[in-house]
Amino acid sequence: MTQSAVKSERAAEAVAQHIEALILEGALKPDARLLPERELAERLEVSRSTLRDGLKILEARGLLVSGGRGAQVAALGAEAITDPLIALLARHSEGADDYLEFRGIIEGAAAGLAAERATPVERERLRDLMERMARAHEAEDPTAEGEADAELHLMIYEASHNLTLLQIMQALAGVVRADVLQNRQRLFAIPAMRDVLYAQHCKIGDAVLAGDAAAASAAALEHLDYLRAARQELSAADARLDLSMRRLNGGGLQATNKR
């Protein structure tokens, strides 16, 4: 191998390592599309051939996928996890309880870490999210509030600066969003519950912004425990209603008496 070939190979690996680091730290998120080849090569100060070699390395590692519109960050199997899991949670209430228990375990830790590690930039983003949520809450817009809710939870994982937590929750981002929106559709029907959820999110955000790790962790756990209890209450109410309907019509199997 010639000296120029060695230099080219090293440059391509350097390109791959740089982009891989951005993916790992969450700066480049799943499905994010990279800049066009010419612009990306200029930004990284390498030739287009070196850039292409670097992107091929990342494709071989399963971190990038290429298409007609250029390279984009791979979803890292997110669909294979989220789609079946969303369907499972929709069908089985006990699965939803386990999911919320899982969220509580790791989100309490993530919130505490975020309070300790969040950068000024992340704190500003968190303030913006809380303001968006406040406006949506005031406007009684559950869809907008639900989106801000999901983004706030994912923001907590980013601000934790724990790469494993971040990668796991980015893979589960679809589940988080679906769960938040489904929760809101059901829970908003219960008097005063909407205000409780909003107050809980403010408590989590305020604790993170204040740098109070213990309070942030406790607030996150309180929130997820509340959601679990509320979901169980809703499931029990649904079961009672179903039983009443079955008793009323014989489960749909009883013949009607004709006179």
Give helix and strand order, one letter per element, not per position.
HHHEEHHHHHHHH
> CATH fold name of the largest domain, please?
Four Helix Bundle (Hemerythrin (Met), subunit A)
Radius of gyration: 24 Å
- Note poorly predicted spans: none
When the domains are counted, the total is 2
CATH class of the largest domain: Mainly Alpha
Portion of residues in helices? over 70%
Look at the structure and name the CATH superfamily of the largest domain. Answer: GntR ligand-binding domain-like
* Inertia-based shape: globular
Specify the number of helices: 11
In this structure, how is the largest beta sheet organized?
Answer: 2 strands, antiparallel
**How many beta-strand elements?**
2
What is the SS-derived class?
Answer: mainly alpha
Function: Transcriptional repressor for the pyruvate dehydrogenase complex genes aceEF and lpd.
InterPro entries: GntR_C (IPR011711), TF_FadR/GntR_C (IPR008920), Tscrpt_reg_HTH_GntR (IPR000524), WH-like_DNA-bd_sf (IPR036388), WH_DNA-bd_sf (IPR036390)
Pfam families: FCD, GntR
Protein name: Pyruvate dehydrogenase complex repressor
Structure description:
The chain has helices at 3-24, 37-44, 48-60, 78-91, 93-117, 120-138, 142-160, 163-171, 173-187, 193-210, 213-249; strands at 64-67, 70-73. It has a two-stranded antiparallel sheet. It starts with a helix and ends in a 10-residue tail after the last helix. The protein is mainly alpha-helical and 259 residues long. A hairpin with a 2-residue loop joins strand 1 and strand 2 (70-73). The model has no long low-confidence stretch (mean pLDDT 81). Helix 5 crosses helix 7, helix 6 runs antiparallel to helix 7 and helix 10 packs antiparallel against helix 11. It is 77% helix and 3% strand. It folds into two domains: 3-73, Winged helix-like DNA-binding domain superfamily/Winged helix DNA-binding domain (Arc Repressor Mutant, subunit A); 78-248, Four Helix Bundle (Hemerythrin (Met), subunit A) (Up-down Bundle), CATH 1.20.120.530. It is globular and about 80 Å long. It has eleven helices and two strands.
